[in-house]
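User: Need the bound-state model for zinc ion:
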Amino acid sequence: MTRLSVVLFSVCLGLAIACGPSRVPEKFHQKLVILGFDGLDPRLVQKWMDEGKLPNMQKLAKQGGLHRLETTHSPESPTAWASFATGVNAGKHNIYDFLIRDTKTYMPDLGMVHREPPRFILNYIPIAAPKLTSIRGGTSFWVTAGRAGVRSSVLTVPVTFPPEDVPNGELLSGLPLPDIRGTMGTFSYYGTDLSRYEEGDTEMGGLLKRLVFDGDNAQTELVGPPNPIIRQQLRDARATPHPTDVDKTRIAELEAREFVRLPITIYWNKAGKSATIDLGDSTVHLQEGEWSKWINLDFTINLLVRVHGMAQLYLIRAGQELQLYISPVNWKPDNPPAAMSAPASLSADLYERLGAYRTLGWAEATWPLNEDRLDEKAFMDDLYRAFDDRAQVILQRLDSQQWDLLVGVIESTDRVQHMMWRLIDPTHPMYDKALAAKFGDSIERVYRRCDEFVGEVMSRIDATTPILIVSDHGFHSFRESVNLNTWLVQEGFMTLQGQAPGEKKLRDLFGGGGQFWENVDWSRTKAYAMGLGQIYLNLQGREGHGIVAPGAESRAVQEAIAQKLLTLADPKTGARIVDAVYKSEDIYTGPFVGNAAELQVGLAEGYRVSWQTALGGAPEGIIYPNMKKWSGDHGAYDYKSTPGTLISSRPIDASFASIMDLAPTVLKYFGLPIPSDIDGKPLF
Ligand SMILES: [Zn+2]
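Assistant: Bound-state model below.
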């Protein structure tokens, strides 16, 4: 019986090893290494290179140059890394943003992956595992090259989850590999200083719980993965057309059991500023300011099904107040709820060699810092470990020598810039002189860590092996938030009715039954904004309540919005807010163009669409200062001002290179034909 559950719900270690990697004979003599650093900005690289702070990158740049690498529409990691992998524009690979929407209901959902829940019979016995499918189109260069016999090792590149089979190669998944709850990272925070009203979900994926001590101990719980059996029952119960009071009671009772919970007992030694925490099968003793090792957590769905995860605990304070942080529960690499590598045994093999390494695609603690639950020091300590986890995986595979083509991506560069940009921009509303004195060098330190890592890689490979350093986009300061939907309302393109709804939360996206667009009158709405800079028309025949006729009317509405947006100015300074507005028919080609937003807005330096706009909200006011620590960004900016970085150890033909050029460059390098539908061109 246990066997059944293991086969269906986790990657069976025994099975995985049985079908594990077999050594592929070497067919190619040339080798190539591509290192990706998400969001590495070419202006910052140039600056610190000139100051002699990035000696290894400089060494490479002396051979082949430092270049700006044109990014994609939109200038976001999922879109740009998908173009990196496939060599095509988003119209051919279908990844436009983190979010997609249901055209019939307008409901936003996380993009990249299509999920089908597992199925059970008799509400107990698993008969079908959860099915995950990538919505990315196109063919990645490691697959094309692999078919010709090139042995690839593809490590934590964004948009590689679920893992695709790589002929003659291997792949360890990166973003959007979720946490055990199926989210991009839900952290838990427990505090004696929380009021009852603060308990619950935060805007960006945190769970807050108030601690009440009885003597020296307090009881609480860790909220784990959803119970798929209860979820199945909930879906059925909610589908009842006219629910009676009995049905409603049953739904409430099921909702209370929707997630699997683990009890936690905290023993507080106030005098010693420490605590002992019982969680799952572990007992952890921590001093104030101390992080635990990774601890294993088993969540029991029923006797047949268990889900395995791991988390780190951090005792923030244990003096006057007690504050405890628990990281998002990562999948356990040797026993994940679904395959996270190809072959499936790779993640377990790495676990055996390296010990625990974080598996969550969004590996850094951005949300708890943004919500002021972790401070800058804790965030940076954790971020360096996230960097090292990725780096050691790449070095381990590099040393295995079982590759002709190695591609590894580290994303800590992106996260540190999102969170710490306010400390290098004295004009940012969240600039803080005292904090800047302490943490103003955080971004530079991570760039230097990248440089050291490049040096480590260079020292381990043959001097004849070319190295390419790539980033998917650059960075900007995010000083002001722009409510695009509110602007659409003001200009008459969107009509609201009734009461303004509450704030949208990220949790509402993750099957949480959240409400969106509650007060939008679709019968009088021509356009709506969602995601980072996308504006969709409410098109007849496509949207559930579409009113704009395709053809001439659609073009006229697009034109009117674009022209008006270009005149949008900051009332405080008179500065123009929008650099450019792009029409989908001008920037995309390919089979998925129909899924693109009609307009992609390119905002000017300093302005980014608001979080509420991203989730479809229309709160009051159009422009307001960004008072969050998330202070640097790239999504929703004009792609022209947001290029990534390319450093090559080989001279490059093109004076201006695009992220779509990497795939054809690799294929040409291995002497392979470049498929005719690829949009990029080889760089050497
Ligand atoms: Zn980013």
